[in-house]
């Protein structure tokens, strides 16, 4: 499978922990790194539990951070290179070589399975999902879905992306 190392996220929310929750800036940075390094749901949940044990009741900002990490993991799992939330839609971009079937390390069969999932998503799974000729996947999740509750918008993006896994 094509190995994407990171994904560019442009989200309409603050994904930072309050200094009042984790007062030490070095410790806060260490926690961010650990969140984004979590590769499984168990690791992520253990980290949330650890934060609750060490720093007290989990603030909404920590839940939002965890959900962003979940969305990022899904995006990396489908080899996306970017996600941008806009007024009319949320855009997911893939590396051109992934869509063209020329990605290093990706077999023809893996490419065919991915493209079938992508086309099924657009044609039957979710209404108003489009794949542009430029290879951008447009999800029907508008900016308003993130306000006033970012978890709602993130949850909808996560639900749609899960069809590609």
The poorly predicted ranges are none
Q: Indicate the percent of residues in helices.
A: 40-55%
Shape by Cα distribution: globular
Order of helices and strands: EHHHEEHHEEH
- Helix tally equals 6
Strand numbers in spatial order across the main sheet:
1-2-3-5-4
Number of strands: 5
Average pLDDT works out at 93
Summing up helix and strand content along with how strands pair, one would put the structural category as: alpha+beta
How big a fraction of the residues is strand?
A: 5-15%
The N- to C-terminal Cα distance equals 12 Å
Largest sheet: 5 strands, mixed
Radius of gyration: 17 Å
List the keywords.
6 helices; alpha+beta; 5-stranded mixed β-sheet; 5 strands; globular; 165 residues; 49% helix
Question: What does this 3D model show about the protein?
Answer:
The chain is built from 6 helices and 5 strands, in the order βαααββααββα. It is α+β, with helices and mostly antiparallel strands. The protein has a 5-stranded mixed sheet with strand order 1-2-3-5-4. Strand 4 and strand 5 form a beta hairpin. Helix 2 packs antiparallel against helix 3 and helix 3 runs parallel beside helix 6. The two termini are 12 Å apart. The mean pLDDT is 93.
Task: Provide a brief overview of the structure.
It contains six helices and five strands, in the order E-H-H-H-E-E-H-H-E-E-H. The chain is α+β, with helices and mostly antiparallel strands.
